């Protein structure tokens, strides 16, 4: 600033109002330093020297005041410019945030610290069926389906209060009553002191994706024709039942059911009639199930029945006969009259095997003995 003041005009005549020696400062000194020298020596003028030691000009108190005013105005203008730029950037950011809020496909809920809804976006209304006016002043419990236990929400709030965020899947209810699954993220908005001001919840409807996943899981574990558990799922259930029976000192029975002369049905009436027969038999077997029993289709015309917690062979024999009766009750399928029967082989845990594979092999062996014995009957596995 002193350099600017020194270059403002040509140096005055040195003889005017000067005394020896000259008291001065470098052109790079601050105005504050110049002011202090004036006050310290009780003088009205101060010399300003250049790099070569030459006198640039004499500086008075009025010059210092003028310099301070100039510097102040310069800094003020710079501060105003920066403020205007910041305001413009803030307006742009707010406009962008508003556009995102209004146009995003995810539903957004903004609540106060007590969970009272203060704002929702259009996607919220599209997903839930509730208008903005219906949601304001309510809490997110407006969407509660009852599918989550109280402990679920207690854990959610613990995470929010501890970590300031929560994320997971929730089953909620639309205004019309239909359930839907959403992926939900909740974040606490805090001030500089760490106090919670708002909660922001962002959610997306993943119902169709969940249904597709569940359908794929069902198809991977169930027979496509009859919807019964398939071999994979049945073996898992059988192994689990074996482990439970071993720990509890209980018995279980495995019935291997094979239709008699099923190939003849396919050959004479066609595969459509054969498929319809399998569907009807699956329904018949399911209709006779008792608690603790599982029926499955292993493939072709083979079915299995798992009986847990059985008492003895007499009880198992009664259940095998009930399955045979259910099958022979069918008098016709697909408009065709026919007599249907089956042969059943039975293995018992722990007598005939202590693992799923062994029990299945022994039940299959007993089934063939039932066929050899004249069909339309059942046989227990014997080692001889």
UniProtKB/TrEMBL annotation:
One of its GO terms (biological process) is regulation of DNA-templated transcription. Residues 99-139 form the PAS domain. SMART domains: GGDEF (SM00267), PAC (SM00086), PAS (SM00091). Residues 250-383 form the GGDEF domain. Gene3D superfamilies: 3.30.70.270, CBS-domain (3.10.580.10), PAS domain (3.30.450.20). It comes from the Bacteria. Signal peptide: none annotated. Keywords: CBS domain, Hydrolase. Its EC number is 3.1.4.52. Residues 164-218 form the PAC domain. This is Cyclic di-GMP phosphodiesterase Gmr. It is an enzyme of class 3 (hydrolase). Residues 18-76 form the CBS domain. It holds the Pfam family PAS. GO terms for molecular function: cyclic-guanylate-specific phosphodiesterase activity. The keyword Hydrolase applies. The keyword Methyltransferase does not apply.
